[in-house]
Amino acid sequence: MLLERTSETASVQEALHAAADGRSSLLLFAGPLGIGRSSWLRELPRRLDVQHVRVMRANAAVMEQDFAFGVVHQLFDSLTLDASDDLDASHASGDAGEPGAPGAPVPPGALAGYDAPAGEAPAFPPDEGPRPEDLLPAGMDDPSAPLDSILPDLRTLLTRLGRARPLLILVDDLQWADARSLELLSYLAGRLHDVRAVLVCTLRDGDPRARHPLVCAVTDAATQVTRLAPLSSAATGQLVREQFGESGEEEFLGACHRASGGNPVFLRALLPALDAAGARPRATQAGAVAALRPAPLRERLADCLRAQATPVRDLAAAMAVLGGTAAPGLAGRLAGLDEVGESCALGVLHRLGLLAAEGVPDFVHPVVRDAAKAIMSMTEYGSWHARAALLLHEVGHPAEEVAVQLLAANTLSDGWSGTVLRTAADSALRRGAPQEAARFLRRTLLDSPEQGEERALLLIDLATAENAYDSAACERHIGQAVALLETPHDRAAAALRIAPDFLSAVSPTGVEILRQAAAGLGPTDRLADPARGTALRLEARLRHSARQDPAELAAAVRRLGERPEEPAVGTGAERELLAVLLHAATLSGRLPAHEAARQAARVLERVPATGPEVPAVLPLLTAVFTGADRIDVLADWLAAREHHRRTAGEATDPVSHVGLATVLLARGRLTHAREHAESAFEYAMSDRHGDSAASAVAVLAAVALESGDIALGERVRAGAGGRRTADDLVCTTLLRLTEAQSHSARGEFAVALDTVLACGRRLEAVGWRNPVLFPWRPRAIRLMQRRGDLESARALAEEEYAQACILGAPVAIGRAQQLRGGLRGGSEGTALLRDAVHVLRGSAHELELARALRALARAVRVGAEARELQCESATLAMACGVPWKAEQDRPGVPGPAGPQPEPTLTPTESRVVALAGSGLTNQAIAAELGVGCRVVEKHLTNSYRKLGISGRVQLLALMAGAGKISARA
């Protein structure tokens, strides 16, 4: 497809008309690499009226420059003659004159084989024309023949060829023509009168040979010079439609046009590559256009750069090495060019079409940078980067920019390179790029001594960076560093770099490193600070790594009670150890809930909520407060932290999202809990915070279990695959419970029960018996009810109640009493349900209270008390974003057995319902929320469906007597 070359074609057609009237001309068409000169010239005869025109064409090539008269031979080889062409007619009727003049005699050999001597057979059969190559002067095959005798003969021949029909002589890539052919073309260009010819030549801008004197002799004689323009956006759209078979979206077309600069060769390389990669011309694929680097295009550009003069190649190499850091003049300095030399080289690159803008050292597309790199050997590439690093360091560029150059350098410069790399690593860590930091440190490590403290410190820094994404490498390098350090304190400090945030699992190798470091320090009570603080932190790490050992859990409870005075919380190490002990005691369920919460509050009040970093103990304390059903202190602390973050304009980190989701889940606020859990889960899936993956997966799985959302549970299990969750027992347990939930929804109650019981046995085996954190028995009891095994269900309910009493958490006791009451039935069951409601009124879990109220309302069945219980239950549930369906709440109607998916209102639906319940019209609600009435109607319709009601009247009735729902619900 030839696009947008109408004006150029028209100019040639006009020149042909003039040539027919005896006015010959030379037209020059120039342009950068890939602009479409050759394609246009190849198509030109088919787009012209050449019925009475004789066409001659030649394509010059780099490899044929040593072939004398190569282009001339191509011109005559392309010529088609027949017997009707009377080349001698002009001679018979013309006047004799100088060679080359009209009517001049044909030079000897010019028509050799065409006119046979008298009495001899003709050289050609009567029905065939002469062969074009037989028309050429014999002297052309003799390298020693003088041009003075050949060039006039050739002009005379062309003149006679043009007598019958005008000539259209096409020469592509004039800059690569051989010298003898250029002599003819320059000779002809100055003597076009009476030849009746149009000579059309194309020239590549920026090519070194375009400045050859013989080429300039031809181009200077041009009667018209035209530079081919880039394709327009509309033409780009046509090429996209041709490639993909459909029109492209505007953003995609714009990206294609910007990436190619309207250059056809770029477009014809990019579009097939995009198509082969499965991309479609959509706006979402616009980013892929600039990133694509087709290999054929890269090789063609590399060939073009190889043909350039040394200054141009050097500047292109400097620009490729510097990349985006090429400030004005910097690439020229790196290439060893002065201002004039750099300006000239930039001019050549621009004429070649390789720059985004004239005079700016910026390539038009990344593939040009790849091509510039391709022309360098590996040794040259490393040397360029070493010089670039030195230059950037001297002019004061940031350490990370210098370090990127040092990574590719052959060798590091003495003195400053290591310092720059370590500074760059610190900068990368501060901006949250640990993998970049590790790359810089590994490069430094290659040139560091094999022994000694310097190497040990490098290994420790490298391990610190690696811990964020590769715990195994972190432990390996810490082990190497410990072996190089001399003092026990230094070895212990190094060991503490392993799993510093209590979120990552520590391997047996890492545990052994910690244990040996702790043994080297000796007993804690004999140490003074800072060694004592280091020892306490090591003890905290070791105890936390042993949290799945029942003996260690029991030891943690004993450790908390071994001294009559309060555990110290004055230092960070003391707070860290106490948090670990409280966490272990909470998992075991052996420490009274009120005591665990009180001690956790002592730790938390010493932890500032306004710091930039997430406190290492936060995940531990979150589990303690949640397991104790005492979350007010934690909720206030998290609220203060969020307020500080919003004020400072900081984004909420994934660990804080997990904490907020856990607190909201402990209150039964499922809608908002899910929002924060989803945010934390997205961070985990993006691998931006690998250490928080297990916590994020666990809290979203807990939301799925609490809300009975089967689809959410399946999504969490699918997303958790391949993440760093396999070694986290909390995470794997909750995922297995969501799997059991799916089995139950499909009616596979036996399989679901086996899965739940297996989870319970594993938790019991490691001593994790906290019924708040691990409510597996209630799920097993409901499944036993489904199967009709009431005896086993009652036995398990008694176990749950006993464990809840040991812990003393209201939500655990209330839930257990509700289970016992439901299994007993009658007056005894009703009494147990009343006790459950009473206990749960002291719990933070509003949704669990709503469930107990609903169960008690069904037990009471009729009367004012049942209606009041039902109304309070519905109000609490709606505040939690989990409205009960109205038909389920009517007294006397038994609810479904077993856990059921509970409909949830979105935050917007909750607010719309609250405003509607307060008596506002749809228009007033729309004005309040700043949305349209149709949006309000949509939210109300969805809410009515979830609530199981038909309209606003039933909504007001449902909310009557319970007060208005807050729009924050």
Task: Spell out the key features of this protein.
mainly alpha, 5 strands, 969 residues
- The share of residues in extended strands comes to under 5%
Mean pLDDT across the residues is: 84
User: So what's the overall shape?
Assistant: elongated
Let me know the largest β-sheet: 5 strands, parallel
Query: What is the terminal separation in angstroms?
Result: 62 Å
Number of helical stretches of at least 4 residues: 47
Oligomer: single chain
Query: What is the CA-atom radius of gyration, in angstroms?
Result: 43 Å
Poorly predicted ranges (pLDDT <50, ≥5 residues)? 88-127, 886-900, 961-969
How many beta-strand segments? 5
Which structural class best describes the helix and strand composition? mainly alpha
Secondary structure: helix percent: 55-70%
Organism: Streptomyces cremeus
Biased composition (Pro residues): 893-904
Protein name: AAA family ATPase
Domain HTH luxR-type: 898-963
Structure, explained:
By secondary structure, the protein is mainly alpha-helical. It has 47 helices and five strands. Strands 2-3-4-1-5 form a five-stranded parallel beta sheet, with helices on both faces. Strand 3 (167-172), helix 6 (179-189) and strand 4 (197-204) form a beta-alpha-beta unit. The longest helix has 18 residues, at 147-164. The protein is elongated and about 125 Å long. It starts with 5 loop residues before the first helix and ends in a 10-residue tail after the last helix. This is AAA family ATPase. Keywords: ATP-binding, Nucleotide-binding. It comes from Streptomyces cremeus. Residues 87-143, 887-907 are annotated as: Disordered.
